[in-house]
Hints:
- With 444 residues, the protein is α+β, with helices and mostly antiparallel strands.
- It has 4 domains: 2-105, no CATH class; 117-204, PAS domain (Beta-Lactamase); 210-278, Helix Hairpins; 288-443, Histidine kinase-like ATPase, C-terminal domain (Heat Shock Protein 90), CATH 3.30.565.10.
- The chain is 54% helix and 17% strand.
- The protein contains 12 helices and 13 strands.
- It has helices spanning 2-33, 38-68, 79-115, 134-140, 152-155, 159-167, 206-242, 247-279, 291-306, 329-345, 393-398, 405-415; strands at residues 119-123, 129-132, 174-177, 185-193, 197-204, 288-290, 312-317, 323-326, 353-359, 365-371, 419-425, 429-436, 441-443.
- It has a 5-stranded antiparallel β-sheet with strand order 2-1-5-4-3, sandwiched between helices.
- The model has no long low-confidence stretch (mean pLDDT 90).
- The structure holds adenosine-5'-diphosphate.
- Residues 338, 342-343, 346, 371, 373-374, 376, 384, 389-392, 396, 401-406, 430 line the site of adenosine-5'-diphosphate (ADP).
Amino acid sequence: MVDTTNSWLLSRVSARLITALLGGGLGWWFGTHIGYPATTSVFVGAAAVLSLTVFDTLKGYKLLDWLRTPEAETPNLPGLWGEVGHRIYRVLRNKDMQLAEEQRRLQQFLSAIQASPNGLLLLDENEHITWISDAAADHFGLDPVRDLRQRVTNLIRQPAFVQYLQSRDYKDPVKCLMPRGMQGFISVQARRYGDGQTLILSQDITERERADNMRRDFVANVSHEIRTPLTVLSGFIETLASLPLTEVERTKVIGLMSQQADRMQTLVADLLTLAQIEGSPRPASDRWTPIASLMRRLQVDAEGLSRGRHPLTFTIDSQGREVELAGVESEWISAMGNLVSNAIRYTPDGGSVDVRWACLPEGGGEFSVRDGGIGIEAEHIPRLTERFYRVDSSRSRGTGGTGLGLSIVKHVVQRHGGEMRITSEPGRGSTFSIQVPAARVKAH
Length: 444
Ligand code: ADP
């Protein structure tokens, strides 16, 4: 360092000496030609040339100072230094613009990746994290800043993930659990790129897994529900074919067979209703059905089902106005009818069933069915609308239930923008209600 400084000083001093000598020579030649004394000419020449170079060097230093702090204003220098400064400024400005453009593009690219619901994790050749997208941070429970440069397997310790990464066989994705507390699944796929770096893609497959499970459960439940009456039916057919029965026995067996056939028919009808509701478009909001006619139909069906075993009341509370309901009439009938038939089926003889429509002061209305029946324990209530969920299977089957009624109700209500509410007390009865939004109720 000292050597370098010394040699730099030496070269500067010798450069100045040479300049002074040259200036002196020039001054002597010119001064003596025009009659000045030689010493004065040499001195003036050397001084003039030296001051010119010092002035020039000062300009150079000014430029150098600016280059050291390029954010400062460009020095306004005359002559050659000015031109050099200007050119340097232009080159730097172009580079700055290019850099800004590159950064803008990189930012856009990163924003596009961040906008994706799929996660992206970049690892270097030592499996240290170099970049984490927000979705990946969510999927793996990582911190996009704090966890950078950490070894990925120190942070994601799930055996399935660690084994997958170490296997180096990334043809197929692997299913992993989301971090604790999130209760979901992600599909993880790795890919190699560059010089041994790894890209890890993650996708939230919780919904897909749930739908798959539901489909599997549904198929298993349907098969089970159909197999049971079929087994009973084929047993009776065998009995009829192989045993000589009396007329009374024959009538009894045929009665039981017809009960099982009815059960299968109801199940198929409920399944079809569900499939139809799921497959049809959102119900129109300009098809109106009078509440009075809906209530009349519900009453006729309820009286047929109860056959005088329950005191039934049907009330419309609308301050004397005609009320109409928008949507698909058959779906409303199916939803309301299911609630009424449940109330009758789960209320012992003598228990009352009150069906009521009320216009709400804030707009909209409420259809409710209150029974004095067996009631439902609180822990079952959130699961009642699941397909085939029954609190007591034998009781449900015994009363001709399929376990699909409330899931049909929930579907219909949701499709019409409404809400279903259930309150119940075991041994005292239940109230099932449908809240209908103001947009689907017209009172006049
Ligand atoms: P199901 O065809 O078995 O009646 P639902 O889906 O209509 O099927 O009802 C699901 C379960 O909810 C029934 O099995 C029954 O246990 C319970 N449930 C429904 N309505 C009532 C009610 N009004 N009182 C008591 N329990 C009820």
